[in-house]
Structure prediction request, 317 residues.
Amino acid sequence: MERLKGLRIVVTGGAGFIGSHLVERLLNLGAEVTIIDNFLFGSKIEHLRGHRGLSIIEGDIRDAGVVSQATGAKDIIFHLAACVGVEETQRMPFEVLDVEIQGTLNVLNSAVESDVKRFIFGSSSEVYGDSLEPMKEEGPFAPKSTYAVAKLVGEEYCKAFRQKHGLEYTCLRYFNVYGPRQDERFVIPRFVNRVLSGQPLEVYGDGKQTRDFTYIDDVVNMSLLAAVGPEAKCQVINIGTGVTTSINELAETISKALDSKSSVRPAYIDYDEKRPRSIETFNRCAGNSRAIELLQYKPGIALASGIEKYISWKRSH
Ligand SMILES: NC(=O)c1ccc[n+]([C@@H]2O[C@H](COP(=O)([O-])OP(=O)(O)OC[C@H]3O[C@@H](n4cnc5c(N)ncnc54)[C@H](O)[C@@H]3O)[C@@H](O)[C@H]2O)c1
Prediction:
């Protein structure tokens, strides 16, 4: 990681959950970081404002001028800006698509113009839909939402830019990332909040759907290794633990961590317009042998201890 010291790095979506952790670590490692973010979902980087290694550009990645202003003479771009979440996919599908396609093209074009050494694309496990477990990078793919389709398109653009311009990219398919500062729309923060406020956990369907939850520190470590590792060049890599947890098990783990016997029994609710059954994925487990081989890293933070860390952060904020 010392290799990152002094490098000039752009993080699109740097004011978001994953971006804010990545930016913080990069600054601690001595990198010079430029964030582009439209602050659509607020800001998770207020504590970093004023840091001498940090520049913040408030703007939209769909604006090519803003993007090229930020990316001139840079070494690495982490492209994380996106409209994230099932509800957003439902509420504003054209905006989701526009940001993923137009925005990603702008960032890719700028990466080529400024001759960056590595372009990291924040993709998603959603590209697999309900395909076989564990999900392997080569597929099969069965994207169920606009967001998932758009992520696959973004990956294909990275490959096309490699062919046409020689761009060195790495696509990281993040599985469910969690940790401090995550938006309360997502399941772990939502469950913790419900227990803390004495409300039953609301579980969609029968709660048997599974996820592969990966703690943010592991995700940041793997993302940085992907950015500097020669083996990760022009690769698509799953970023997950390889361990599945059902939503019922998650509810139990959180209730136990908060010592809340009353909340152990979740309230089961039907899928609705906010979360339609048609775009729900029912199983998700990362095949992580490629990450272990190419990044030489295996996520080390088990769900129960990641949840403890999250709760202790939550209690102090
Ligand atoms: N968190 C996860 O579990 C997860 C899982 C799979 C993939 N991902 C991907 O990782 C990336 C980061 O996710 P996150 O959880 O940090 O999400 P986030 O919503 O916290 O961060 C995304 C950031 O992008 C910004 N943004 C959105 N549209 C923009 C635009 N048009 N121009 C400039 N900025 C814009 C938002 O303001 C936000 O700060 C995304 O690309 C997401 O698709 C995340």
Summary: The radius of gyration is 19 Å. Residues 13, 15-19, 36-41, 60-62, 80-84, 99, 103, 122, 124, 174, 176-177, 183 surround nicotinamide-adenine-dinucleotide (CB under 6 Å).
